[in-house]
User: What shape does this take?
Amino acid sequence: MLYPAIYTKPLSEDFPSDADRLLEVARLAYRDMDNPDGLKLDEWQEWLLRAILERYPDDHPDPNKAGRLRWRQCVVSLPRQSGKSLLGALLGLWGVAMRQGQTLSLASSAEQARIIYDRVLHTITGNETLKKRFKKTTERRGIVSADGLSRYDIRPAKEAALQGLPLDTVLADEGHLWKRGMWTACVMGTSQKQDGIIIMLTTAGDDSSETLIDLYKQGERAANGDPELERFGFFCWQAPEGAAVLDPESVLASNPAVECGRIPLDRVMSDLATIPEHEARRYRLNQFISGVSESWLPSALFHRNVGVGIDDMQGAVISLSITTKWEFATIAAAKKDGDIVQTELVASLVRPSENELYAYLTDFYRQHRPKAIVMGSRTAPKLAHRLKDAGFTVWQLSLGEYASACAQIYSAFETGTIKHSNEPLLIAQHSRGVAKHRGDTWAISRADSYGDIDALEATIYAYFVASTKENSAIGVF
Assistant: This one.
């Protein structure tokens, strides 16, 4: 079995744990889409549940600890697709069905918190024995035991949502997105209860994940035996520092679900070859990353995808990107040909005025009849309105769409489904682009890039709409 790279050791080899009873109940009652015929856990998952729910022995010399849950705070860090939602659902079932008091699922949004909650609800309503023990089992207004002593709800991870709440069990998701103060609010809420506990299930974060960074530091101290953190549990699977992304041993060392054989290694290695390195390190190797990546795309991938340009501009998508101070503007084009999207730069203008850009775009539009003109949502809004008022199809990409566009064009470079014309301006700018991470997404950031990237941005805009938007879906926005 693969143990975590860093973890707090149990007090003894045969330590008592609430997970023993929980697993008995879950094997009889738990069902979900992944386990329609009954619960199937990996060996490491059973070990982890036992470790999270460890209790001090009844004969412990400190009467204030004897028989109590060992951890008051517990942080578990795992790569994606390891089964965190299943672990969370089992812990939620433990909280509401085997304890008294308030259980909460917390995440960055109520919808995210519902993932665990819905699994618990499905298990209870799908088992007649369990169902009889609850008088209220609703999709949005909580699960309440028949005697009224136990309740399970969801909340968004906001400090104000926890003020004054006495909490017994807190299940915290997406720790990399938690703001400062949230963890403290949870600790204060559970401190009123003798066996109050907060359990975080998360993946690694970046340098903006202040709360998770603090918890990692405490976890490492606890794992190294700091007596002040005796009741802080920490279980972190991660690849060794300096590990290569495509090193199978590093993947196995950080992914217990792969090491045990539930997820095939060859599938993981194939996926890793098609995603940016910063995503691979964070979500598969479970390593903290800097909020800024040195380059958004390896040069080898850029040069591997050289094409010959667009033969016929009719039906293409054209795009506009303007530098912050309107010193330069680039117009790019993209057109899909089978599975390949061809791109090229159409024009580069120096210190353009709005009228000059309007004249150039309208003239180009009338000559070549492109599908749409694309620009960022914050790019020249007056110009965008003028073009729309003139009857041209204009697509203004939101920040979320731009993040999707960056991820999709990266994948296209990986899979060879984009071809560019190898213009000197694009060659110079592709290596300037720097990826900025925001929560679970990333995008190429002007502020963090090394110089102007208007040609790169325009290419991304055009590629995104040309590759993903069907004719019927392109309209005036």
User: Anything to note?
Assistant: The domain at 299-473 is CATH 3.30.420.240 (Nucleotidyltransferase; domain 5). Residues 329 and 430 are 16 Å apart (CA to CA). The two ends are 54 Å apart (CA to CA).
